[in-house]
Amino acid sequence: MVGVNGHSQAEEAQAAAGDERVEKKDSVSRGKSVDFYTAVPAGHGDGKGLPVCIVLHGASKRPPDFPKLGFGRTLSRAVEKGTPPFVLAGADGGRRGWRPKPGDDPQRMAYEEIPNWCAERGFDISRLALWGWSMGGAGALLLAETFRGFARATVAFSPAVAPGDEVFEQVDRLQSQPIGLWCGLDDRLLKNVQALHKELLYPPVAGRYTDGGHNFDYWQTIIPEAFRFIGTTLD
After folding, report:
1. For the chain, where are the alpha helices, taking DSSP H only?
2. Structure pTM?
3. Which domains can be identified in the chain, with CATH numbers?
4. CB contact burial 123-154 (16+ within 10 A = b; e otherwise)
5. 113-144 pLDDT, tens digit each
6. Which residues contact 207 (CB under 8 A, 6 or more apart)?
7. 128-186, pLDDT tens digit by residue?
8. Distance of CA 179 to the CA centre of its chain
9. Residue % of the chain over a pLDDT of 70
């Protein structure tokens, strides 16, 4: 799996966030009001015309946490270093996974409503990528499988997958798009992620297995290289 050298966390901390927002949106798919996060890289104004990476969160960190995690700053730094610019956009999908449930369909929200909210802001929703970690990594892969052609690329950090689950059962539907797959060598899900890797007809075109666990101490170290991959696929 090919990796791209990232930048230090000190560098990311020095970068300025651009237009970064958390606002409320009424989600018909989820039957409730949800937090909606967007980040435009610094120097790109309100982001009109930029492509979008849809963010699918894990079980703990949610959209209001994204600014504190430095997503906007890291995106700005990546673009400063030459990554083609794009927008991050993500909404609260709840804690039970990105799968359809009676009266609450976060997958449908990600497929229909998030792009519509992005279009209202003038972002280019004809160019979309997916990025998620843990529960959200599995959700991103499942979304790509369910709606083939929806995204140009899918990035999964330590996806919460297991042999025999929906992601494994539909893995053949991932063959037509670039995949980025990262996981820490100390992650409890490592064997499952490696099993999924082996099931792919074509290997991931980005990602790697390096020291780290199932936490943001690890994930923050690999976000810069993932952003470079995303930007390149959306350019």
Report:
1. 9-14, 71-80, 106-108, 114-120, 135-146, 166-169, 190-199, 216-234
2. 0.93
3. 9-234 (3.40.50.1820)
4. bbbebbbbbbbbbbbbbbbbbbbbbeebbbbb
5. 999 999 999 999 999 999 999 999 999 999 99
6. 1, 2, 3, 155, 179, 180, 181, 182, 226
7. 999 999 999 999 999 999 999 999 999 999 999 999 999 999 999 998 789 999 999 99
8. 12
9. 94
Token pair belonging to 11: 């560098």
Q: Measured between alpha carbons, how far is 157 from 227 in angstroms, rounded to an integer? A: 12
| pLDDT tens per residue across span 40-97 | 999 999 999 999 999 999 998 999 999 999 999 999 999 999 999 999 999 999 988 9
Dist. CA 222–CA 169, nearest whole Å: 28
